[in-house]
Fold this protein.
Amino acid sequence: MTQTPSTVVFVSLTGDEEIKVYDLDSSSGALRLRTTNPAHGPSGALFLHPTLDVLYDAHVESTTLASFRLDKTTGQVTLLNSVDTGIGIPAHSVTDSQGRYLLTAYYGGGGITVHRLGEDGSIGEQIQHVQTGPKAHAVHISPDDRFVIVPHVCPTNKTSQFRFDTETGLLTENEPAVLLPPDDDTGPRHICFRPAGDVAYIINEQGKTISAHRYDSASGTLERFQHLSTLPEGWQQEGGSTAHVEVHPNGRWAYGSNRGHDSIVGFNIAEDGSLTPFGHYPVPASPRSFNIDPSGRFLYCAGEAADRMKCFRVDPESGALEAFDEIEVGHKPFWVMATTLD
């Protein structure tokens, strides 16, 4: 008998050093806690192996990376292994499409590492550390595994561009090696592509802005063509920052999180990839991470300073968000990941 795939929401908790797994009701979007798992460190960004039942956790506020065996039936995650890179504050990790290498960006120690992965998905030897400067905050690898993009917030304030060798796992500088933002106070932080793969959106931490870029899939490079605020027109705010960007699965809308203003901003995406804001939606304090479920019907946003997560329905015609629940998740939620377990 074939098991029906279940949709779940992972929440990593830096303060509690836990990874929680919630069942998502596909009709209502309601969440029910399935498991609470020790993260064996200050849990940060999560990533699922593309072919194995393995979960990776970049232990933010530390120097370690961890791999976990995921039981898709129970939702339990069990430590496979952890490695200490000696490089401070791993901010984000991804694998290549074949699951042979783990690439990690570092906010504290700076740069990006490449680790070989074992046949069981465990983290193996570190084969490279490219020092691009501190404040690297995300790493994106192209679907064809040929190129890697790494945004850095201020004061490094740049986006690094690499070529990636799938045979050796090594990175080399692309041409150009760096994409500079429009000013000295922008801070590229996270990146997301629309489904067509031709336009990338980078949300800028210090600038409280979002930038749209044409992506050349032949060269693996970005060219900015739009730069606009993530805040409501006329809003005056001391401090604050942005955090995360996501594109809806249908490619019609993009969303970004504002810390300080404590909101999710929604943008319409035109045919040419340009953005037009359509609304701001209140969320718990200091929204670091949010995610849209694979069906595109629900969005979940955690407030790192509030220890709570807000649940939204996504209007299928307009992309507008309608809040329907808010739950306590635990201390310092860092990462939210909604996915279907086949």
